[in-house]
Amino acid sequence: MSLPVHWVPSLDDAAVGSAVEVDGDEAHHAVAVRRLRVGEPVVLTDGRGRSVTGAVASTGKRAFAVTVASVADLPLPSPSVTVVQAIPKGDRGELAVELLTEVGVQRIVPWAAARSVAVWKGERADKQLARWRSTAREAAKQARRSWFPEVTGLATTDEVAGLVESAPTAVVLHEGATGTIGSLPVAGPLLVVVGPEGGLTDEEIAVFESAGAHVVRLGAEVLRTSTAGVAAVAALLSRTQRWG
Length: 244
Hints:
By secondary structure, the chain is of the alpha/beta class. It has six helices and eleven strands.
């Protein structure tokens, strides 16, 4: 069984034999909820490729320390994957973020699509974005990732078109497309655009196609917006060196 992973803001000074302190909510959950004990081996990561393994040296109410036994610096997985996720209603956004993080997506871009039911504005936008980022961080720990995904600010359709234009392989999922995702040539980095519950408008499809996107369907079935992205990413990664 793999070791539990905890996040720390920085591991720049970590070296074999040194001590790394973990505090705040991260430490409180480990000590009070997980019942972390002295001597237990754990992994700490900064979410930017560096991880350390070591045994817990001490614990407190909202803190614990780890004596570093080994340090690992891992390269960013290649090809990287960006998913543009139209804002879904309810908690389906967090579900999408969780699944995309588990499957290895490196960047998640919330998108205000024309037919998005949910609307992010003002304080609500800040709260929802914070929830997506928290969900990504927790899912990354659960998935034992050394590189945590970036959750960007809310994007407009024009900004998404710019991402499409710069991506070697850009895929837009649409249930009415004639082409399938399995027929595409794959070259990274990869970009996947997932529409909202109400579907993409003809105008959005035209904008993305003009920017160079491949508009494809996954199969005969119609997936929810919260699960379509992870299915598409899995289909693409299975044809790359990451999963091949």
